[in-house]
Design goal:
The structure holds two protein chains of two kinds.
Chain A (H helix, E strand, L loop, with lengths): L1 H5 L1 H31 L4 H12 L1 H30 L16 H4 L1 H25 L6 E4 L2 E4 L1 H11 L1 H28 L7 H30 L1
Chain B lengths: L4 E11 L8 E11 L4 H14 L22 E2 L2 E2 L21 E5 L8 E3 L2 E2 L2 H10 L19 H11 L6 H5 L6 H12 L2 H4 L2 H14 L10 H5 L7 H15 L2
Classes of the chains: A mainly alpha, B alpha+beta.
Amino acid sequence: MSKFFTASIGRKLIMSLTGLFLVMFIAVHMTVNLFLIFDDSGELFNRAAHFMATNPAVKIMEPILGLGFLIHILWSFLLEYENWRARPVKYDKKNPEVASSWTSRNMLVLGALILVFLVVHIIQFFWVIKFNPESMKSVVIQGVQMEDTYLLVSDLFKRSVVYDIFYVIGGILLGFHLSHGFWSGFHTLGLSNKNWMSRLQIISRVYAIIIAVGFSVIPLYFLIKF
Amino acid sequence: MADKILKKLNIKVWRQNNAKDKGKFETYTIENISTGSSFLEMLDILNNKLILEGKDPIAFDHDCREGICGTCNLYINGRAHGPDTEVTTCQLHMRKFNDGETITIEPWRSKAFPVIKDLIVDRNAFEKILQAGGFISVNTGGVPDANTIPVAYEDAEESMDAAACIGCGACVAACKNASAMLFVAAKVSHLAKLPQGKIEAKKRARNMIAKMDELGFGGCTNTGACEVECPKSISITNIARLNREYLKARFSE
């Protein structure tokens, strides 16, 4: 089995499995986030956030998710370095646009930009909720006292146009990353053939658009409405 | 109808004396090239000129000149086999170029394909991958009757499509990772699809992948550039099949 993960196909299998795991997480994350714009009192989102913070199943998944991110990110840099080494003398004249999409060739660039977004995003929200809840205001919803996560998020988006744009760009970058990553993950697992490849590519694009629009619409909603 | 004449072309070409030489680009001008001539004919004309001038002619690989041997491998203007689809360099015509244009010609660039001289690279790496598992071990004996082993039409078609690979290495040259995945996928697929190839399927996938990695080819990131630049348009769905075959082989160990 050790041979398996040192072989090229085994190595890319790790990228594909962690990637598809993160694809699932993104869907859940976006669904919960959309509660932000469907209830301006914030009750719906606060209850959802409270559920995510206290549910034992989510608590178990949290470190696994962190590990998923870590492996996906570190592994990508290692693989990209090895792939870069496979061509010691580079071409003088390149014309790659004819044969492949910019997105597919620059998954690492997109990934690195998303990483920058992720770090800022974690510091702003996750870190505060997880390790500094005392700094947040609390609300009582249906007799249960909880942190006002809605205020934390909506306040930032109402206050700062710069962060609104930052979050919109984050959503769009993620969309581009997913438009190649989603179908590519299935392809690497071998779950693709002459019928399914084009279908997966279409599903991939649709999913990418849903995610990009779903995430971007939230800061835009607060920017425009308030 | 007479072919148009390209009055003047600048040919920027990679010159390297041997594997150890550092190599550099040289630019030559060539005049009055018919758009009806092939790219290799243009190089022949240029070489004649160089010989008459007492210079060393440009070394480039070529053999059948009818698109089936996979020898004439040139990276032209940033593309494997130049600016045309489903062709090898010998099938590329000068009508694809404009008068006064500078044409850049480079050898395949890959750690696994070292330059021998000028534009010729050593593609023994492909032979080594084939020797690792691209065969079936049966006693051939006499010629067997046709159709004694039934093969489904779909399987025969897919196998033949994969078997169209001429091993030219355009997939490696075009890939941003210099990966040989499409070549290995084609070789594994055309045998995996047939009953005769199934017996050694697991061993084949394992050994060919191990050899491919050992030789220093990069990994696949599914950009699809290989399929576009492949003279035989071999589909990257073969790579999905290779992944499947490999995973089956590894997990049944």
